[in-house]
Amino acid sequence: MTANLQWNPDQRELADLELLLSGAFQPLTGFLGHDDLHEVEAHGALADGTPWPAPVTLRVPGAQAGDRITLLDPEGAALAVLTVTESGHDGLVAGPLEALGAAEHGPFARLRRSPDEVRKELAGRPTLAVTMRGPLDDLSAQEIIAVAEELDATVLLLPLAYGEGGPALVRAALKAREKLPEGTLVVSVPLAPREDKEIDLELREHVATAYGAAEHLAGPEPVTLPGPPHRRGLVVFFTGLSGSGKSTIARGLRDALLELGGRTVTYLDGDVVRHLLSKGLTFSKSDRDLNIRRIGFVATEAARHGGLAICAPIAPYEATRAEVRDSVESVGADFLLVHVSTPLEECERRDRKGLYARARAGEIPEFTGVSDPYEEPDDADLVIDTTHISIEAAVSRVLDTLRSGGWVR
């Protein structure tokens, strides 16, 4: 049975969607299906032999062949409809795309132009495209000027404005334009970087060609010098069963940090969040995930601006914890996962709120540790069992970790 669905692609998928719709990923017209994906990964070409360097995929869990999926931008505006012709057990989907509107989200949207628009403006003139992942230094600018003069070409700066650093990169391109020949164009392209540098370069060349480049230069790679840990954003994320002691440790850590001073502290306790940020949510898996995502969003925003956020939800599912870690690290902040590993028997023995008794009696469905699983983390940065240590000792262990990592001085 087919369905009409709505889906918000993640940041990378959204960037790839925009480039598919604009024609910057020509000859691709949609996300790769199984055969094309296999050939790209094995041989760097599509199933028909056309060279293509990198996977371009979309994951929509549960989608089936025949479904029509409306793809939305972060503000909920419809960008395209995907008619699913192929779906895999891993959630990857493929099929024809129908554009519904131009992408308008994000800074410098006015500088995001399609290859057809740029080619029309260039009117067949020889073009030197420069793809930028970092600012242009003086040597790069001199090389661009020399090559442009040799080719008698118009310079087209393509800042690959993806992620948190995107706006700064576009600003750098606009500033660089002042040093380059008159008539230099700046077009913002949301091309997500690929981990393999050679594949990333090949993809940049494909995009440059789509924009009409006769010659392509890759700008220098960005040099990132992260600030000292005590100036970076940090999320301390406690996870553990109800009654494990995580909230008490988290409160103790908050108090200790406020006494020390020097850091802006945001405290997000699971129970408090439930009454405010996530009021009305149930304890179903989907609502629990949504609760953790909301906590992660607030914590990420605090860390984005250099703050220290302390979170203390149960967070029973590994995938959702990983999602929060990725969100925090994507803004250049650090993430510290603390597993309060107090065993279920001890948590149930304490049962100060009577929750376990109610769960055993069937009054609370889907209760973590009783009728719903807790997936123990294997990536915890610190593990604390409060069965035989005091809360003060547990807080000291976390604080010592923060000091040894340089987050607190």
From TrEMBL:
ATP binds at residues 240-247. It catalyses: adenosine 5'-phosphosulfate + ATP = 3'-phosphoadenylyl sulfate + ADP + H(+). InterPro entries: APS, APS_kinase_dom, ATP-Sase_PUA-like_dom, P-loop_NTPase, PUA-like_sf, Sulf_AdTrans/APS_kinase. Pathway: Sulfur metabolism; hydrogen sulfide biosynthesis; sulfite from sulfate: step 2/3. Signal peptide: none annotated. Keywords: ATP-binding, Kinase, Nucleotide-binding, Phosphoprotein, Transferase. Residues 232-385 form the APS kinase domain. Residues 10-86 form the ATP-sulfurylase PUA-like domain. Its EC number is 2.7.1.25. GO terms for molecular function: adenylylsulfate kinase activity. The keyword NADP does not apply. Pfam families: APS_kinase, PUA_2. Belongs to the APS kinase family. Catalyzes the synthesis of activated sulfate. This is Adenylyl-sulfate kinase. It comes from Nonomuraea roseola.
